[in-house]
Amino acid sequence: MKDNFEILTVEDVEYVKDYILRILFSNGVTKQVDVLPLLNGAVFEPLKDKNNFIQFGLTGGTIEWYNGADFAPEYLYKIGVPA
Mean pLDDT, to the nearest integer, of 41-47? Predict the structure, then answer.
């Protein structure tokens, strides 16, 4: 039995507005993700300040914020909507 397992990575990310990011994944699909509902807990709370939120980059195949916060690309893909 062969599993249909695909490792996704984030290839590009663009800030859209508010807490919405446009993300290009390694499978060629682009999705928009509203990250605001995910910003809970000690690591993510500082990102509710938009000045902090926009301080992100690509590291290790995903989006990482200035404070080390990140999300699994597969999760971002799952909750994203077609862009």
Answer: 96
